[in-house]
């Protein structure tokens, strides 16, 4: 759960669930033109997202048991790097196919199915709130500066 200081500063994030996003042409072009598939950018963005989440709510690490054996060095592990890249590569697929979102439905549905395992690992709604908060307060450039 976010700390009292965090809640006092930013309040509780209220984000309604989005079942279907229908971006307009401007939004599609903005995404397509500003997204980078450069490896270093993707790795740093994914790493920043997970680092922020784990540092602001260490309980989230329990969802990734393969990181526990690394203790405080989890950020240097191959498993962490792989997870950070998987996340941003998924975003990249969405951006690449922004004009053909219907082709991504099976791909994204499969990811959702695989994430059901997190319920058995102790997933709590506030973990998702931390994740959403990070995505809402940070542009990719700002995200890299939060480390």
From TrEMBL:
Residue ranges constituting the Globin domain according to the UniProt record: 22-147
Top-level taxon in the UniProt lineage: Eukaryota
PROSITE patterns associated with the record: GLOBIN
Record-linked InterPro entries: Globin, Globin-like_sf, Globin/Proto, Mb-like_M, Oxidative_stress_globin-like
Pfam families noted in UniProt: Globin
Statement: the UniProt record of this protein carries the keyword Nucleotidyltransferase: no
Any GO molecular function: heme binding
Record's keyword annotation contains Secreted: no
Annotated keywords: Heme, Iron, Metal-binding, Oxygen transport, Transport
Record-linked PANTHER family: GLOBIN FAMILY PROFILE DOMAIN-CONTAINING PROTEIN, GLOBIN RELATED-RELATED
Family the entry assigns: Belongs to the globin family.
Name recorded for this polypeptide: Globin
Organism: Ancylostoma caninum (Dog hookworm)
């Amino acid at each position: 759960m976010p700390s009292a200081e965090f809640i006092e500063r930013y309040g509780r994030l209220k984000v309604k669930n989005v079942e279907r996003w229908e971006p307009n042409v401007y939004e599609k072009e903005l995404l397509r033109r500003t997204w980078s598939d450069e490896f270093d950018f993707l790795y740093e963005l994914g790493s920043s997202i997970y680092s922020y989440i784990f540092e602001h709510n260490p309980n989230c690490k329990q969802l990734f048991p393969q990181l526990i054996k690394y203790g405080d060095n989890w950020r240097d592990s191959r498993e962490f790097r792989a997870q950070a890249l998987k996340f941003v590569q998924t975003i990249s697929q969405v951006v690449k196919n922004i004009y053909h979102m219907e082709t991504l439905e099976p791909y994204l549905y499969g990811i959702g199915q695989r994430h059901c395992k997190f319920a058995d690992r102790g997933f709590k709604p506030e973990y998702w709130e931390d994740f959403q908060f990070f995505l809402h307060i940070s542009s990719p450039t700002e995200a890299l500066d939060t480390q």
